[in-house]
Specification:
four-stranded mixed beta sheet; globular; Rossmann fold; alpha/beta
Length: 199
């Protein structure tokens, strides 16, 4: 096993052993990657403004289909107006998975609910780290480019993956600033490739 794979595995174990991950925006990427992480035993919360979507996830779970097979998983879901509940269980990793123009309000929505050592990861179609860092600082901000995943939301609570993971280009994560925390620059960002591969 490569060092990268070993570090990613260790981080997944860290999350399985009590870490809390939130996806701010449960659209196609947030719903699919969050659902796959939940299937891997990670404590995931999906946050979204689409009421019917959140209600469906609460009632029926997240349905995943496509090239990686069929699955259904129970995932905690919150309406946007319910995020104050996160005070009871702070977020270790907040994935920002909204459209670029929604980045700043989404970051502010969860800023006060990050754990002391928590940080945010931009998993978006765009380079939005600067917008996130404006509110969290560079020490708590990471970027992740999911270049080999194609998913769509086909209905409330149902995400579909359209092609196989992998290929010549891999998903990657990086911290732009040397001021990024050791934890944020360390093994955690390496997990993005494994998470988005969603085996």
């Amino acid at each position: 096993m490569s060092g990268l794979a070993a570090n990613a595995g260790a981080s997944m174990d860290d999350l399985r052993n009590g870490g809390h991950v939130a996806f701010v925006g449960a659209g196609a990427i947030g719903c699919y990657v969050g659902g796959r992480m939940a299937l891997a035993g990670i404590d995931v919360t999906l946050i979204d403004p689409w009421g019917e979507h959140v209600d469906t996830i609460r009632r029926d779970g997240v349905t995943l289909s496509g090239t990686q097979g069929e699955a259904n998983v129970r995932v905690h879901a919150l309406h946007v107006h319910e995020v104050q509940r996160l005070i009871e269980k702070p977020i270790d990793v907040a994935f920002v998975t909204v459209k670029s123009y929604d980045t700043e309000w989404s970051t502010l929505l969860v800023r006060d609910y990050l754990a002391t050592s928590g940080f945010a990861v931009s998993l978006q179609n765009g380079i939005n780290e600067e917008r996130i860092a404006r509110h969290l600082g560079w020490g708590r901000t990471l970027g992740c480019i999911a270049s080999t995943i194609g998913v769509s939301l086909v209905g409330p609570g149902h995400a579909v993956r359209h092609y196989q993971p992998g290929g010549a280009t891999r998903s990657s994560a990086s911290a732009r600033s040397t001021g990024a925390s050791r934890r944020a620059r360390g093994r955690w960002p390496r997990c993005c490739a494994r998470w988005t591969a969603a085996r």
